[in-house]
Amino acid sequence: MAAGAVNTAINGGNFGMSIGLGALFGGIAGAIGPGVFEGFGGVAKDGVAWSNFLPAVKAGVVVGAALGGLSTAFNPKSNFFQNVAFGALGGGMGGATGFGIGKGLVEAQEWWNSLPGRNDNEQGYTSSRGKTVTVTRGGTPAERAQLEAELGRVFSTKRGQEMLSALAADNKPIEFQLNNRGILGNPRGTMIIDMDLNAHPEIETTQGWRPASTARILAHEIGHVAYGIGDTGVGRMANVIANENPVATELGEPARIRYSGR
């Protein structure tokens, strides 16, 4: 808006048009903040997921529309609704831009943390035999400590002890790659497990639908790596029955009764 007024003073342009353009770019600038906020705000929940895109745009539209309406105060003769529309348009663009900035920065940091040799971002879980059975890359120190604590819970169970022994005998540690993008899984044929400690997809259990705990997810994915058991068998429940449920039930959680979630 200020830019529009300055433009009018310099070249005698139409004040209303200048204010409209000022509202447009003011909306973009004003919405970048909410866009980044929405982007980074999602990190604590499910990463900078695309589910945050529309909230970011919505925040930008609101900010932009408000700026557009406010611009009328600088020129009461200008069209209020046109100014609001210009501001909302610019704000929406700004929200999308801000989301992209937030998502790009977070993913760039995750990529940097995952590079080999980033020893300050690596941590391992060592078995009682003195063998390193896991290596963790990425994440913050607090997240890596959280993962190690959850691994301790898994390996404290009877089935967890068996998995731990299998991993120690294999002499190939699992590589956990932490992310904040909701990615969970074990790429087929690898020792890698992608893990988002804030992702808890809903599963059906003997006590109804509930979010999967981190320990349960770890038991499931480690089962894939330690024994090569896929999501096969009747109802794709082979790995759930062999590894996930024994660990989960010993930790006081209900057994899972269906592979597919909702």
Note down, in words, how this protein is organized:
The protein is an alpha/beta fold and 262 residues long. It folds into two domains: 113 residues, no CATH class; 132 residues. The protein is 57% helix and 11% strand. A hairpin with a 5-residue loop joins strand 1 and strand 2. The longest helix is centred in the middle third of the chain and has 35 residues. The N terminus is likely disordered.
Summarize the structure.
The chain is α/β, with parallel strands linked by helices. It contains nine helices and six strands. 57% of the residues lie in helices and 11% in strands.
- Share of helical residues: 55-70%
Strand residue percentage: 5-15%
Could you say how many structural domains there are in total?
A: 2
Determine the structural class based on helices, strands and strand pairing. alpha/beta
User: What average pLDDT do the residues reach?
Assistant: 76
How far the N terminus sits from the C terminus, by CA atoms, comes to 47 Å
Tell me the Rg in angstroms.
Answer: 26 Å
The major beta sheet can be summarized as: 4 strands, mixed
Low-pLDDT parts are: 1-15, 34-47
Order of helices and strands: HHHHHEEHHEEEEHH
Widest beta sheet: strand line-up:
1-2-3-4
Report the principal-axis shape: elongated
Count of β-strands: 6
